[in-house]
Protein backbone atom coordinates (compact mmCIF):
# COMPACT_ATOMS: atom_id res chain seq x y z
CA UNK A 1 0.00 0.00 0.00
CA UNK A 2 1.28 3.46 -0.90
CA UNK A 3 0.20 6.56 0.93
CA UNK A 4 -2.40 9.10 -0.07
CA UNK A 5 -1.59 12.51 -1.52
CA UNK A 6 -3.45 13.88 1.48
CA UNK A 7 -1.23 14.34 4.53
CA UNK A 8 -2.16 11.83 7.25
CA UNK A 9 -2.96 12.99 10.74
CA UNK A 10 -1.07 10.16 12.45
CA UNK A 11 1.55 7.68 11.31
CA UNK A 12 1.60 4.23 12.87
CA UNK A 13 4.40 1.85 11.86
CA UNK A 14 2.74 -1.48 11.22
CA UNK A 15 4.10 -4.21 13.43
CA UNK A 16 5.27 -1.77 16.10
CA UNK A 17 2.22 -1.49 18.32
CA UNK A 18 2.01 1.48 20.60
CA UNK A 19 4.44 3.64 18.62
CA UNK A 20 3.04 6.77 17.03
CA UNK A 21 4.83 9.30 14.91
CA UNK A 22 3.93 12.86 14.10
CA UNK A 23 2.72 13.62 10.55
CA UNK A 24 6.00 15.43 9.93
CA UNK A 25 7.72 12.06 10.17
CA UNK A 26 5.91 10.81 7.08
CA UNK A 27 7.65 10.97 3.74
CA UNK A 28 6.12 12.76 0.78
CA UNK A 29 7.40 11.82 -2.67
CA UNK A 30 8.49 15.04 -4.37
CA UNK A 31 7.11 14.03 -7.77
CA UNK A 32 3.95 12.07 -6.96
CA UNK A 33 3.15 14.07 -3.80
CA UNK A 34 2.08 10.81 -2.14
CA UNK A 35 2.77 10.16 1.54
CA UNK A 36 4.26 7.03 3.06
CA UNK A 37 5.50 6.22 6.54
CA UNK A 38 9.10 7.23 7.08
CA UNK A 39 10.10 8.38 10.57
CA UNK A 40 13.32 10.28 10.89
CA UNK A 41 16.23 7.88 10.92
CA UNK A 42 14.07 5.01 9.67
CA UNK A 43 13.54 3.87 6.10
CA UNK A 44 11.25 0.92 6.64
CA UNK A 45 8.41 0.45 4.22
CA UNK A 46 5.42 0.90 6.52
CA UNK A 47 1.98 2.36 5.87
CA UNK A 48 0.57 5.64 7.01
CA UNK A 49 -2.92 5.59 8.42
CA UNK A 50 -4.98 7.36 5.78
CA UNK A 51 -7.57 10.07 6.37
CA UNK A 52 -9.31 8.40 3.43
CA UNK A 53 -8.22 4.75 3.10
CA UNK A 54 -9.83 4.65 -0.34
CA UNK A 55 -7.06 6.95 -1.55
CA UNK A 56 -4.46 4.26 -0.94
CA UNK A 57 -3.32 2.29 -3.99
CA UNK A 58 -3.21 -1.48 -3.64
CA UNK A 59 -0.19 -3.09 -5.27
CA UNK A 60 0.37 -6.59 -6.52
CA UNK A 61 1.94 -8.89 -3.96
CA UNK A 62 4.67 -11.18 -5.25
CA UNK A 63 5.62 -14.32 -3.34
CA UNK A 64 9.02 -14.07 -1.68
CA UNK A 65 11.73 -16.10 -3.42
CA UNK A 66 13.37 -18.87 -1.42
CA UNK A 67 16.18 -21.36 -2.02
CA UNK A 68 15.88 -25.11 -1.76
CA UNK A 69 18.46 -27.46 -3.19
CA UNK A 70 20.02 -25.93 -6.29
CA UNK A 71 16.97 -23.92 -7.36
CA UNK A 72 14.95 -20.81 -6.55
CA UNK A 73 11.28 -21.23 -5.65
CA UNK A 74 8.21 -18.97 -5.50
CA UNK A 75 5.10 -20.38 -3.83
CA UNK A 76 6.33 -23.92 -4.45
CA UNK A 77 7.04 -23.32 -8.15
CA UNK A 78 10.52 -23.33 -9.67
CA UNK A 79 11.61 -19.75 -10.46
CA UNK A 80 13.69 -19.17 -13.59
CA UNK A 81 15.54 -15.87 -13.87
CA UNK A 82 14.83 -13.95 -17.07
CA UNK A 83 16.21 -10.55 -16.23
CA UNK A 84 18.15 -7.46 -17.19
CA UNK A 85 20.91 -5.43 -15.51
CA UNK A 86 19.75 -1.89 -14.84
CA UNK A 87 22.08 1.00 -13.99
CA UNK A 88 21.34 4.12 -16.07
CA UNK A 89 24.42 6.32 -16.23
CA UNK A 90 26.73 3.43 -15.33
CA UNK A 91 28.92 3.23 -12.27
CA UNK A 92 30.46 6.64 -12.91
CA UNK A 93 27.10 8.35 -12.36
CA UNK A 94 26.55 6.45 -9.09
CA UNK A 95 22.80 7.11 -9.23
CA UNK A 96 19.97 4.98 -7.88
CA UNK A 97 17.24 4.60 -10.56
CA UNK A 98 14.72 3.36 -7.98
CA UNK A 99 14.34 6.62 -6.06
CA UNK A 100 12.93 8.62 -8.98
CA UNK A 101 9.38 7.50 -9.73
CA UNK A 102 9.35 9.21 -13.11
CA UNK A 103 12.51 7.37 -14.19
CA UNK A 104 11.59 3.94 -12.89
CA UNK A 105 8.01 4.06 -14.19
CA UNK A 106 9.34 5.01 -17.63
CA UNK A 107 11.69 2.04 -17.65
CA UNK A 108 9.42 -0.49 -15.94
CA UNK A 109 6.92 -0.11 -18.77
CA UNK A 110 9.69 -1.26 -21.13
CA UNK A 111 10.63 -4.10 -18.79
CA UNK A 112 7.03 -5.29 -19.12
CA UNK A 113 7.33 -5.26 -22.89
CA UNK A 114 10.61 -7.18 -22.74
CA UNK A 115 9.02 -9.83 -20.54
CA UNK A 116 11.65 -9.75 -17.79
CA UNK A 117 10.95 -10.96 -14.27
CA UNK A 118 14.03 -9.53 -12.52
CA UNK A 119 16.28 -6.47 -12.60
CA UNK A 120 19.68 -6.00 -11.03
CA UNK A 121 20.64 -2.59 -9.66
CA UNK A 122 24.31 -2.06 -8.76
CA UNK A 123 24.03 1.22 -6.80
CA UNK A 124 21.20 1.61 -4.28
CA UNK A 125 20.87 4.66 -2.04
CA UNK A 126 20.24 3.52 1.54
CA UNK A 127 19.28 7.06 2.56
CA UNK A 128 16.29 7.39 0.23
CA UNK A 129 12.79 5.94 0.06
CA UNK A 130 12.10 3.21 -2.53
CA UNK A 131 8.44 2.41 -1.87
CA UNK A 132 6.99 3.75 -5.11
CA UNK A 133 9.45 2.11 -7.49
CA UNK A 134 9.48 -1.19 -5.61
CA UNK A 135 5.67 -1.22 -5.77
CA UNK A 136 5.77 -0.48 -9.49
CA UNK A 137 8.20 -3.36 -9.99
CA UNK A 138 5.90 -5.64 -8.01
CA UNK A 139 2.92 -4.51 -10.09
CA UNK A 140 4.88 -5.59 -13.17
CA UNK A 141 5.78 -8.97 -11.64
CA UNK A 142 9.45 -8.01 -11.36
CA UNK A 143 11.91 -8.90 -8.59
CA UNK A 144 14.98 -6.88 -7.57
CA UNK A 145 18.50 -8.27 -7.29
CA UNK A 146 20.18 -5.79 -4.95
CA UNK A 147 23.92 -5.16 -4.78
CA UNK A 148 24.72 -4.08 -1.22
CA UNK A 149 27.89 -2.22 -2.24
CA UNK A 150 28.45 1.10 -3.96
CA UNK A 151 31.60 2.77 -5.33
CA UNK A 152 32.49 4.36 -1.98
CA UNK A 153 31.30 1.51 0.25
CA UNK A 154 32.84 -1.75 -0.95
CA UNK A 155 35.67 -4.21 -0.41
CA UNK A 156 38.80 -2.98 -2.18
CA UNK A 157 40.50 -5.96 -3.82
CA UNK A 158 43.86 -4.15 -3.66
CA UNK A 159 43.59 -3.57 0.11
CA UNK A 160 40.80 -5.81 1.39
CA UNK A 161 41.74 -5.74 5.08
CA UNK A 162 41.27 -2.01 5.81
CA UNK A 163 38.19 -1.76 3.58
CA UNK A 164 36.36 -4.40 5.65
CA UNK A 165 35.44 -2.16 8.57
CA UNK A 166 32.52 -0.98 10.69
CA UNK A 167 31.71 1.98 8.43
CA UNK A 168 31.44 -0.38 5.48
CA UNK A 169 29.19 -2.82 7.32
CA UNK A 170 26.96 -0.03 8.62
CA UNK A 171 26.24 0.92 5.01
CA UNK A 172 25.74 -2.71 3.98
CA UNK A 173 23.38 -3.39 6.87
CA UNK A 174 21.39 -0.21 6.19
CA UNK A 175 20.85 -1.38 2.61
CA UNK A 176 19.91 -4.87 3.76
CA UNK A 177 17.42 -3.60 6.34
CA UNK A 178 15.86 -1.25 3.82
CA UNK A 179 15.30 -3.84 1.10
CA UNK A 180 14.55 -6.96 3.15
CA UNK A 181 11.14 -5.45 3.86
CA UNK A 182 10.07 -5.76 0.21
CA UNK A 183 8.74 -9.17 -0.80
CA UNK A 184 10.02 -8.60 -4.33
CA UNK A 185 13.63 -8.22 -3.20
CA UNK A 186 14.85 -11.52 -4.59
CA UNK A 187 18.42 -11.58 -3.31
CA UNK A 188 21.45 -9.62 -2.15
CA UNK A 189 24.85 -9.64 -3.84
CA UNK A 190 27.60 -9.33 -1.22
CA UNK A 191 30.14 -8.54 -3.93
CA UNK A 192 30.71 -8.38 -7.68
CA UNK A 193 33.94 -9.53 -9.35
CA UNK A 194 36.07 -8.64 -6.35
CA UNK A 195 38.31 -11.59 -7.26
CA UNK A 196 39.22 -11.09 -10.90
CA UNK A 197 42.64 -12.76 -11.22
CA UNK A 198 44.91 -15.18 -9.38
CA UNK A 199 46.78 -12.43 -7.52
CA UNK A 200 43.84 -11.03 -5.57
CA UNK A 201 42.12 -14.20 -4.38
CA UNK A 202 43.05 -13.18 -0.84
CA UNK A 203 40.18 -10.67 -1.01
CA UNK A 204 37.68 -13.55 -1.12
CA UNK A 205 37.59 -14.09 2.68
CA UNK A 206 36.40 -10.51 3.18
CA UNK A 207 33.54 -10.96 0.72
CA UNK A 208 32.64 -14.25 2.39
CA UNK A 209 32.73 -12.53 5.77
CA UNK A 210 30.32 -9.91 4.40
CA UNK A 211 28.00 -12.70 3.24
CA UNK A 212 28.11 -14.21 6.73
CA UNK A 213 27.52 -10.85 8.39
CA UNK A 214 24.49 -10.10 6.20
CA UNK A 215 22.93 -13.49 6.95
CA UNK A 216 23.51 -13.01 10.67
CA UNK A 217 22.18 -9.45 10.56
CA UNK A 218 18.95 -10.64 8.93
CA UNK A 219 18.53 -13.21 11.70
CA UNK A 220 19.50 -10.87 14.53
CA UNK A 221 17.09 -8.17 13.36
CA UNK A 222 14.20 -10.57 12.72
CA UNK A 223 14.13 -9.73 9.02
CA UNK A 224 13.14 -11.98 6.14
CA UNK A 225 15.95 -14.36 5.22
CA UNK A 226 16.62 -12.95 1.77
CA UNK A 227 19.11 -15.18 -0.13
CA UNK A 228 22.68 -13.80 -0.06
CA UNK A 229 25.47 -14.69 -2.49
CA UNK A 230 28.29 -13.58 -4.76
CA UNK A 231 28.52 -12.46 -8.40
CA UNK A 232 31.87 -13.69 -9.76
CA UNK A 233 34.08 -12.87 -12.70
CA UNK A 234 34.32 -15.79 -15.12
CA UNK A 235 38.07 -16.33 -14.64
CA UNK A 236 39.10 -19.64 -16.21
CA UNK A 237 42.12 -20.18 -13.94
CA UNK A 238 40.15 -20.14 -10.68
CA UNK A 239 36.46 -20.28 -11.63
CA UNK A 240 35.89 -23.56 -9.79
CA UNK A 241 37.96 -22.57 -6.75
CA UNK A 242 35.96 -19.36 -6.37
CA UNK A 243 32.67 -21.20 -6.64
CA UNK A 244 33.75 -23.89 -4.17
CA UNK A 245 35.10 -21.35 -1.69
CA UNK A 246 31.75 -19.58 -1.41
CA UNK A 247 30.00 -22.93 -0.95
CA UNK A 248 32.28 -24.57 1.62
CA UNK A 249 32.25 -24.59 5.40
CA UNK A 250 29.36 -23.88 7.74
CA UNK A 251 25.94 -22.62 6.71
CA UNK A 252 26.69 -19.46 8.69
CA UNK A 253 29.21 -18.33 6.07
CA UNK A 254 28.22 -20.19 2.90
CA UNK A 255 26.47 -18.38 0.08
CA UNK A 256 22.84 -19.20 -0.64
CA UNK A 257 23.55 -19.11 -4.39
CA UNK A 258 26.43 -18.53 -6.79
CA UNK A 259 26.33 -16.32 -9.89
CA UNK A 260 28.92 -15.35 -12.45
CA UNK A 261 29.23 -12.90 -15.31
CA UNK A 262 29.68 -14.92 -18.51
CA UNK A 263 30.40 -13.37 -21.91
CA UNK A 264 31.56 -16.52 -23.69
CA UNK A 265 28.43 -16.86 -25.87
CA UNK A 266 29.07 -14.52 -28.81
CA UNK A 267 26.20 -15.28 -31.23
CA UNK A 268 27.36 -18.89 -31.18
CA UNK A 269 25.92 -22.10 -29.69
CA UNK A 270 25.87 -24.23 -26.55
CA UNK A 271 28.93 -26.32 -27.43
CA UNK A 272 31.07 -23.62 -29.04
CA UNK A 273 30.55 -21.34 -26.04
CA UNK A 274 31.73 -24.14 -23.76
CA UNK A 275 28.53 -24.05 -21.75
CA UNK A 276 28.23 -27.84 -21.85
CA UNK A 277 31.44 -28.11 -19.82
CA UNK A 278 30.28 -25.49 -17.33
CA UNK A 279 27.04 -27.37 -16.78
CA UNK A 280 29.04 -30.55 -16.22
CA UNK A 281 31.42 -28.82 -13.80
CA UNK A 282 28.55 -27.57 -11.62
CA UNK A 283 26.25 -30.60 -11.76
CA UNK A 284 26.97 -31.57 -8.15
CA UNK A 285 27.37 -28.05 -6.78
CA UNK A 286 24.23 -28.06 -4.63
CA UNK A 287 23.38 -24.33 -4.77
CA UNK A 288 21.37 -22.32 -7.32
CA UNK A 289 23.60 -21.06 -10.13
CA UNK A 290 22.74 -18.36 -12.63
CA UNK A 291 24.38 -15.81 -14.91
CA UNK A 292 24.39 -12.39 -13.25
CA UNK A 293 25.53 -10.89 -16.56
CA UNK A 294 25.52 -12.21 -20.13
CA UNK A 295 25.48 -10.64 -23.59
CA UNK A 296 28.75 -10.65 -25.57
CA UNK A 297 28.95 -7.81 -28.14
CA UNK A 298 32.05 -8.88 -30.09
CA UNK A 299 30.28 -10.77 -32.90
CA UNK A 300 27.70 -8.44 -34.43
CA UNK A 301 24.17 -7.52 -33.41
CA UNK A 302 22.99 -9.70 -30.54
CA UNK A 303 20.07 -12.05 -31.11
CA UNK A 304 20.28 -13.55 -27.60
CA UNK A 305 20.22 -17.19 -28.61
CA UNK A 306 21.74 -18.04 -25.24
CA UNK A 307 18.26 -17.62 -23.74
CA UNK A 308 17.18 -20.75 -25.60
CA UNK A 309 19.94 -22.72 -23.89
CA UNK A 310 19.30 -21.17 -20.48
CA UNK A 311 15.67 -22.30 -20.72
CA UNK A 312 16.52 -25.73 -22.20
CA UNK A 313 16.71 -29.01 -20.30
CA UNK A 314 20.42 -29.09 -21.18
CA UNK A 315 20.90 -26.44 -18.49
CA UNK A 316 17.85 -26.15 -16.23
CA UNK A 317 18.85 -29.04 -13.97
CA UNK A 318 21.88 -26.93 -12.94
CA UNK A 319 21.26 -23.30 -14.00
CA UNK A 320 18.37 -21.06 -12.99
CA UNK A 321 18.53 -18.57 -15.87
CA UNK A 322 20.36 -15.29 -16.23
CA UNK A 323 20.50 -11.50 -16.50
CA UNK A 324 21.17 -9.75 -19.81
CA UNK A 325 23.74 -6.96 -19.59
CA UNK A 326 22.42 -4.26 -19.89
CA UNK A 327 19.43 -1.93 -20.28
CA UNK A 328 20.89 1.51 -21.03
CA UNK A 329 23.62 2.34 -23.50
CA UNK A 330 26.72 3.50 -21.65
CA UNK A 331 30.36 4.04 -22.64
CA UNK A 332 31.01 0.32 -23.06
CA UNK A 333 28.25 -0.16 -25.69
CA UNK A 334 26.15 -2.93 -24.10
CA UNK A 335 22.82 -1.11 -23.86
CA UNK A 336 19.62 -1.85 -25.75
CA UNK A 337 18.14 1.64 -25.30
CA UNK A 338 19.54 5.16 -25.52
CA UNK A 339 18.48 7.59 -22.81
CA UNK A 340 18.51 11.13 -24.19
CA UNK A 341 19.47 14.15 -22.10
CA UNK A 342 15.78 15.08 -21.78
CA UNK A 343 14.95 11.62 -20.43
CA UNK A 344 13.37 10.35 -23.63
CA UNK A 345 14.07 6.72 -24.59
CA UNK A 346 15.13 5.52 -28.01
CA UNK A 347 14.95 1.75 -28.40
CA UNK A 348 17.70 0.04 -30.37
CA UNK A 349 17.15 -2.99 -32.60
CA UNK A 350 18.51 -5.23 -29.84
CA UNK A 351 15.62 -4.18 -27.59
CA UNK A 352 13.18 -5.97 -29.89
CA UNK A 353 15.65 -8.84 -30.34
CA UNK A 354 15.65 -9.42 -26.59
CA UNK A 355 11.86 -9.18 -26.36
CA UNK A 356 11.57 -11.68 -29.21
CA UNK A 357 14.03 -14.06 -27.52
CA UNK A 358 12.15 -14.02 -24.22
CA UNK A 359 8.88 -14.58 -26.09
CA UNK A 360 10.27 -17.37 -28.30
CA UNK A 361 11.88 -19.27 -25.42
CA UNK A 362 9.63 -19.05 -22.35
CA UNK A 363 10.49 -20.46 -18.96
CA UNK A 364 9.91 -24.22 -18.88
CA UNK A 365 6.94 -25.60 -17.02
CA UNK A 366 7.62 -27.76 -14.01
CA UNK A 367 10.70 -28.00 -11.84
CA UNK A 368 13.25 -28.53 -14.63
CA UNK A 369 14.65 -31.51 -12.69
CA UNK A 370 16.93 -29.68 -10.22
CA UNK A 371 19.80 -31.92 -9.29
CA UNK A 372 19.32 -31.89 -5.53
CA UNK A 373 16.38 -31.76 -3.18
CA UNK A 374 18.56 -30.38 -0.38
CA UNK A 375 21.40 -27.89 -0.40
CA UNK A 376 24.81 -29.29 0.51
CA UNK A 377 28.29 -27.84 0.95
CA UNK A 378 31.44 -28.78 -0.95
CA UNK A 379 35.08 -29.10 0.08
CA UNK A 380 37.05 -25.87 0.37
CA UNK A 381 39.62 -25.38 -2.42
CA UNK A 382 43.25 -26.25 -1.77
CA UNK A 383 45.67 -23.36 -1.39
CA UNK A 384 48.05 -23.11 -4.37
CA UNK A 385 49.57 -20.61 -6.79
CA UNK A 386 46.16 -19.84 -8.31
CA UNK A 387 44.27 -19.70 -5.02
CA UNK A 388 45.96 -17.90 -2.12
CA UNK A 389 43.35 -18.63 0.55
CA UNK A 390 43.65 -21.29 3.24
CA UNK A 391 40.46 -23.33 3.05
CA UNK A 392 39.02 -22.31 6.43
CA UNK A 393 40.31 -18.74 6.63
CA UNK A 394 37.80 -15.96 7.18
CA UNK A 395 37.97 -12.69 9.15
CA UNK A 396 35.61 -12.11 12.03
CA UNK A 397 33.31 -9.13 12.09
CA UNK A 398 34.86 -5.78 13.11
CA UNK A 399 34.32 -5.24 16.82
CA UNK A 400 32.83 -1.79 16.35
CA UNK A 401 30.14 -3.27 14.09
CA UNK A 402 28.81 -5.58 16.80
CA UNK A 403 26.37 -2.90 17.99
CA UNK A 404 24.44 -3.07 14.72
CA UNK A 405 23.33 -6.63 15.37
CA UNK A 406 21.39 -5.50 18.44
CA UNK A 407 20.53 -1.89 17.70
CA UNK A 408 20.22 -1.89 13.92
CA UNK A 409 22.32 -0.02 11.40
CA UNK A 410 20.37 3.21 11.64
CA UNK A 411 20.28 5.69 8.81
CA UNK A 412 22.48 4.76 5.86
CA UNK A 413 25.14 7.11 4.45
CA UNK A 414 23.59 7.04 0.98
CA UNK A 415 25.54 7.30 -2.25
CA UNK A 416 27.09 10.64 -1.32
CA UNK A 417 28.53 9.66 2.04
CA UNK A 418 32.22 10.06 2.93
CA UNK A 419 33.02 6.46 1.98
CA UNK A 420 34.41 3.55 3.96
CA UNK A 421 37.50 2.28 2.15
CA UNK A 422 39.83 4.58 4.07
CA UNK A 423 37.98 4.46 7.39
CA UNK A 424 40.01 3.70 10.55
CA UNK A 425 40.67 0.06 11.39
CA UNK A 426 37.75 -1.07 13.54
CA UNK A 427 39.24 -4.37 14.73
CA UNK A 428 38.84 -7.81 13.17
CA UNK A 429 40.35 -11.20 13.85
CA UNK A 430 40.67 -14.55 12.13
CA UNK A 431 38.22 -17.38 12.69
CA UNK A 432 37.54 -20.68 10.95
CA UNK A 433 34.67 -20.97 8.49
CA UNK A 434 33.79 -24.35 9.94
CA UNK A 435 33.41 -22.97 13.45
CA UNK A 436 29.95 -21.62 12.66
CA UNK A 437 30.46 -18.75 15.10
CA UNK A 438 27.87 -16.05 14.34
CA UNK A 439 29.86 -13.01 13.25
CA UNK A 440 32.27 -12.90 16.23
CA UNK A 441 34.47 -9.91 16.95
CA UNK A 442 38.18 -9.55 17.53
CA UNK A 443 41.24 -7.44 16.94
CA UNK A 444 43.22 -8.61 13.93
CA UNK A 445 42.44 -10.10 10.50
CA UNK A 446 44.69 -11.69 7.88
CA UNK A 447 46.45 -9.08 5.79
CA UNK A 448 47.82 -9.41 2.29
CA UNK A 449 51.13 -11.23 2.54
CA UNK A 450 52.62 -9.57 -0.51
CA UNK A 451 51.89 -6.66 -2.77
CA UNK A 452 51.88 -8.73 -5.91
CA UNK A 453 48.92 -7.58 -7.93
CA UNK A 454 45.32 -6.52 -7.73
CA UNK A 455 45.57 -3.79 -10.33
CA UNK A 456 42.12 -2.71 -11.45
CA UNK A 457 43.36 -2.34 -15.01
CA UNK A 458 43.63 -6.09 -15.05
CA UNK A 459 42.89 -7.04 -18.64
CA UNK A 460 46.32 -6.02 -19.95
CA UNK A 461 47.94 -7.18 -16.73
CA UNK A 462 46.26 -10.55 -17.07
CA UNK A 463 47.49 -11.04 -20.62
CA UNK A 464 51.05 -10.46 -19.45
CA UNK A 465 50.65 -13.22 -16.87
CA UNK A 466 48.90 -15.59 -19.28
CA UNK A 467 45.63 -15.40 -17.33
CA UNK A 468 42.40 -16.08 -19.21
CA UNK A 469 39.39 -13.99 -18.19
CA UNK A 470 36.34 -15.22 -20.06
CA UNK A 471 34.29 -12.13 -20.68
CA UNK A 472 33.57 -9.88 -23.57
CA UNK A 473 33.99 -6.46 -22.06
CA UNK A 474 35.98 -4.16 -19.82
CA UNK A 475 34.59 -4.12 -16.31
CA UNK A 476 34.43 -1.24 -13.87
CA UNK A 477 34.22 -3.09 -10.58
CA UNK A 478 33.87 -0.83 -7.54
CA UNK A 479 36.89 -2.11 -5.61
CA UNK A 480 39.80 0.00 -6.82
CA UNK A 481 37.60 2.43 -8.75
CA UNK A 482 39.60 2.53 -12.01
CA UNK A 483 37.43 0.66 -14.50
CA UNK A 484 34.64 1.70 -16.78
CA UNK A 485 31.52 -0.36 -15.91
CA UNK A 486 30.23 -1.12 -12.65
CA UNK A 487 29.47 -3.02 -9.63
CA UNK A 488 31.07 -3.80 -6.38
From TrEMBL:
Keywords: Glycoprotein, GPI-anchor, Lipoprotein, Membrane, Signal, Transferase. Residues 359-389, 406-488 are annotated as: Disordered. Pfam families: Glyco_hydro_72 (PF03198). Residues 363-377, 451-462 have a biased composition (Low complexity). SUPFAM superfamilies: (Trans)glycosidases. One of its GO terms (biological process) is fungal-type cell wall organization. Gene3D superfamilies: Glycosidases. InterPro entries: GH (IPR017853), Glucanosyltransferase (IPR004886). It is found in: Cell membrane. Its main location: membrane. Its EC number is 2.4.1.-. It is an enzyme of class 2 (transferase). Residues 468-478 have a biased composition (Basic and acidic residues). The keyword Transcription regulation does not apply. One of its GO terms (molecular function) is 1,3-beta-glucanosyltransferase activity. GO terms for cellular component: plasma membrane; side of membrane. The keyword Transferase applies. It is a lipid-anchor; GPI-anchor. Belongs to the glycosyl hydrolase 72 family. Splits internally a 1,3-beta-glucan molecule and transfers the newly generated reducing end (the donor) to the non-reducing end of another 1,3-beta-glucan molecule (the acceptor) forming a 1,3-beta linkage, resulting in the elongation of 1,3-beta-glucan chains in the cell wall. This is 1,3-beta-glucanosyltransferase. It comes from Verticillium alfalfae (strain VaMs.102 / ATCC MYA-4576 / FGSC 10136).
Amino acid sequence: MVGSTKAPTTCTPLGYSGLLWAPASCHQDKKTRRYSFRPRGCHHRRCCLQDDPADARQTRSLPAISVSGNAFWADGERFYIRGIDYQPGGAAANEDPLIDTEVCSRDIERFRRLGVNAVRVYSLDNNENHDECMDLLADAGIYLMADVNSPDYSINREEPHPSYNADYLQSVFATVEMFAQYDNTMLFFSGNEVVDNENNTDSAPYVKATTRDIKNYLRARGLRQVPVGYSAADVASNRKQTADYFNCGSDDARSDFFAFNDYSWCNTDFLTAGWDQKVQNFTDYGLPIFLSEFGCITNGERTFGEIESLMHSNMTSVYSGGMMYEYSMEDNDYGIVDIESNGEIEERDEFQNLADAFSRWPAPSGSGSPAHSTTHSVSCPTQNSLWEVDGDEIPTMPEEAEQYMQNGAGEGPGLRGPGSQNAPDSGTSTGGIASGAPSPTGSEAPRRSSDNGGSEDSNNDSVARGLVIEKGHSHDVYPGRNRVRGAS
